[in-house]
């Protein structure tokens, strides 16, 4: 971890007070113990940030000039506030609250697939819950989202012997004909391997048995597997789940067709089944699979991003955005993806409100809709609000699981990173001080690409 002295601030020379550090460092740290497990969830909301950290060295109307040492001192003055938040969240009456709220929510609503009735109910539920929590400016912002249903689906290996394949159709996939598709299998280990075997692909079901490296790289097989197989005349594609480990558990997700490539049905299969077929194939055994999928795509549905705020006392027009997504896939409860992220984001506002704190900038909670279909709700939010982009100081999202926190991932200028590191020191007592590279997420990347930290 870099120390303050590594930061590219002139030690004693001056730079504009654009940082706004006369304003509050309102670091909210949500640290919640969840029952038997000590799970620490962290959300830092930094209300001290200026009109985006990109203005760090610009001249502003603040007029004052400060050194990094001044900033360190200013941030350190918030240790009492941080302590109060930690006490309330970890040891006080808010202990377990976020977990209990989430358990009630997922047990009551269940899965929340884009376009589903359940997602509508979830949004209504949250709208009411946020109002009951006494948050400000609670409202719903309309967006259009995809509406796809998986329907009945099954995959059977019928040669060399009968074996039911653990499968889940991929989001947006077309259906098979009602009688299904029965075809010989071509197993490939990579896109390169597919292209080497290009002449064998026509009329086959292509099974991708790609090696898992990391999610970002390996997920390309799920996104583009169907299109690449279809280009070579395949009838369907089955993709080994994008995961390093499986207990016969296929893992669904979104895939993308291309307008000039025929659409073929596509599903993910459990790692075990992909590897079984790869072994059979490598020994020259003929494999035949029957795939039946009843997926349907409907016209886009009406939905909403759910918003609540604590209005800023000094710069109410400036926004510190905290978020998670409410929608989920249809085959689970979405407790972790992204119930956890959504509910710790809500908890951040609850804690601040309960302590009677009022940040200088507006703290805005956004619960996105249609994330799993490609950040659809967030994209429309961005298009609607980018006209005010200079008022967005920082955007945050939790969508990678709320497990044992060790810090946060941050994208921004080196100077902004230095400030973030100072702020994270307020969590030293909980040993949650890391500031990692490459912060971001599907729902906030629109802003990050525009330079918002
Ligand atoms: Zn997610």
UniProtKB/TrEMBL annotation:
Gene3D superfamilies from the UniProt entry: 3.50.30.30, Zn peptidases
GO MF assignments: carboxypeptidase activity; metal ion binding; metallodipeptidase activity
One GO cellular component term noted in the UniProt record for this chain: lysosome
Keywords: Carboxypeptidase, Endoplasmic reticulum, Glycoprotein, Golgi apparatus, Hydrolase, Lysosome, Metal-binding, Metalloprotease, Protease, Secreted, Signal, Zinc, Zymogen
CDD domains with a match to the protein in the record: M28_Pgcp_like
Intracellular or extracellular location(s): Endoplasmic reticulum; Golgi apparatus; Lysosome; Secreted
UniProt-listed InterPro entries: CPQ (IPR039866), Peptidase_M28 (IPR007484)
Protease in keyword set: yes
Domain of life: Eukaryota
Coiled coil feature spans: none
Description of how the protein assembles with itself and partners: Homodimer. The monomeric form is inactive while the homodimer is active.
PANTHER family: CARBOXYPEPTIDASE Q, PROTEASE FAMILY M28 PLASMA GLUTAMATE CARBOXYPEPTIDASE-RELATED
Listed name of the protein: Carboxypeptidase Q
Source organism per UniProt: Python bivittatus (Burmese python)
